[in-house]
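From the pipeline queue, job 12 of 40. The input is one protein chain; the requested action is below.

Action: predict structure.
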Amino acid sequence: MGKFNSSQSIGEIVVKFPKAAEIFKENRIDFCCGGNRPLIEAIKELGLDEEMIMNEINSQYENYEASAQDKDWTTAPLDELVEHILNKHHAYLWDEMPKIAKLAMTIMKVHGEHHPELIKVHKLFRTVQMELEEHLTKEETLQYPAINRFLETNSKEDLEKAVNIIDELEKEHTNAGDILKELREITKDYLIPDDVCGTFELTYQKLQEMESDLFQHIHLENNILFPRLRGLL
């Protein structure tokens, strides 16, 4: 019998088997914002083959050997998890979003006449950029300091400050995830037209890299950090 079954939540599967995220991404199964629902719901919604998906997950799991990069964040110290999110995912977004914004503006100006979808691409990216900048700041100035204070003082007040903002942060994660899904639809899965330049291709590549990084970022928070904090109350 396989290790996993389709009645388990999507997030639970990725927490226990991080490489399942790649299978989910290939099949457009949301493992971050939609990680709390049973896998079977997403399979039916997307019209996927349940047996094929489960066989792929379980066969890969049988050959899976945990590597150094697949740290078990469900048991790692909370401050270490927060530091990882800050250094890897927050730093990435702060660095890359301004670059992508310039690229999106450039290709809209150069190719917008023949590819009007670029106007929407630019607008959606600017929207998600502004929302994420506010979101990251909220985490860095409110939630993460409260977590670190709680770890120092074991104060219930600090823990409550860290937990009480979770619902708001989760809604913001969902909003960002929805915009990324809309970007993927508008760009037809980031299909590169024949009549465009290298900058166009680079822009679409960077948008996909951001999507992948953000999904992993949200997974670490929605499926690991936030449940661990709630469990401490």
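Job complete. The longest helix spans residues 117-153.
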